[in-house]
Design brief:
- The protein is mainly alpha-helical.
- It contains 5 helices and no strands.
- The structure holds fe (ii) ion (FE2).
Length: about 170
């Protein structure tokens, strides 16, 4: 089925996000478990709770536009999670591993921020105010999660550990 209207595009975006969030609910516990830094671990655990809400909102949004629960797989998120798992499997210095984990997690957040920005705009264009509101809520939480990761990464963690070791 091709795209015949913006609503078709919105539906495709929501279906993709539904798959992305489903995959993330399975991946985030592994990332939390792999984190060495306590603040980072808590950030992943907190975002897992939020991700359950994101999944619920994606289902609500699909039902608002009269679409059923999708079965397709978001290949973008699949690839990002595979990269995250690759980072986890490498092992090594705890702080360096956490830095790699943050890099993988921020790729995920930025992917989602882009997708929710698109879905939000399409919902607005199509006059689905309630869907726009749902997308706004999730978009805000994804942005906050990204900012928290930046804060953890720039809060002295790298300077104190990884860089110091690199100069020895
Ligand atoms: Fe999310």
């Amino acid at each position: 089925m091709g795209f015949h209207s913006l609503k078709d595009v919105l539906q495709e975006q929501l279906e993709d996000l539904h798959s992305a969030e489903t995959q993330l609910t399975a991946a985030l516990p592994k990332m939390a478990q792999a984190a060495h830094d306590e603040e980072l671990q808590k950030a992943f655990e907190h975002h897992l709770e939020e991700t359950h809400d994101h999944l619920r909102r994606s289902k609500e949004a699909l039902s608002e536009i009269g679409a059923s629960t999708p079965t397709g797989v978001c290949q973008g998120m699949k690839g990002l999670i595979a990269e995250g798992e690759e980072m986890i499997s490498k092992g090594g210095d705890p702080m360096a591993c956490d830095a790699a984990l943050i890099g993988a997690a921020q790729r995920v957040e930025h992917y989602e921020i882009a997708a929710y920005g698109t879905a939000r705009q399409l919902a607005d264009d199509c006059g689905y105010d309630s869907v726009k509101e749902l997308m706004d809520q999730t978009l805000d939480e994804e942005s906050q999660a990204d900012k928290l990761l930046t804060k953890i990464a720039t809060g002295g963690m790298f300077k104190a550990g990884v860089n110091q070791k690199a100069t020895v």
